[in-house]
Amino acid sequence: MTDSSLPECGVARFLYLLDGPWATLIVRELLHGPHRFTALRNALPGISPHTLTSRLRQFETHGIVTRTSYGEVPPRVEYQLTPLGEGLSDVLTAMNTWALKVPDPPTA
Amino acid sequence: MTDSSLPECGVARFLYLLDGPWATLIVRELLHGPHRFTALRNALPGISPHTLTSRLRQFETHGIVTRTSYGEVPPRVEYQLTPLGEGLSDVLTAMNTWALKVPDPPTA
Description:
The structure is a homodimer. Helices cover 51% and strands 13% of the residues of chain A. The first copy, chain A, is α+β, with helices and mostly antiparallel strands. The first copy, chain A, has a single domain, classed as Arc Repressor Mutant, subunit A (Orthogonal Bundle), CATH 1.10.10. At the A-B interface, helix 1, helix 2 and helix 6 of A face helix 1, helix 2 and helix 6 of B. Chains A, B: Keywords: DNA-binding, Transcription, Transcription regulation.
């Protein structure tokens, strides 16, 4: 794979675009509607600002998220899923449906 | 979350059970049928034996994969998705369908 192409296998392509658990959890939050950076941080306890910034930039690069800056005082910046990004709803729904079938391990 | 319970949110539960990209790629291979350890390694260039063992054990623990040892010489051990594990087909199909809609970035 060169720098400018994505994996040809759709599953590998997905895993490249949604790298690590945080990426999917950010999408989970954005499926509820546009969020400011701080709101995303608050919704995802434990995420570092660096990771959040990095994932949002990756999403912007690939047309999954738009970043809108409003000329207000103080400045307001919102992140929102594009129609392409909203298509991830199908994937997260499938994840959710499957995972809820997995029983909790018996307690010791 | 205690050691013996899984995340309640289905998406978080999925990400816990399929931790890291290799887990999903192992499932992708097993969806083609049972595999021996060595066959999985060969199908996944770059995976370390440690990671492969760790993911397969996690899958066994949660009833996603069975490990069958055949009393042959040399011994043969096969890994196979359970019906629960085969249900991941829906998730991987959704990943694949979505990711193939994401255009390659324009070449420089």
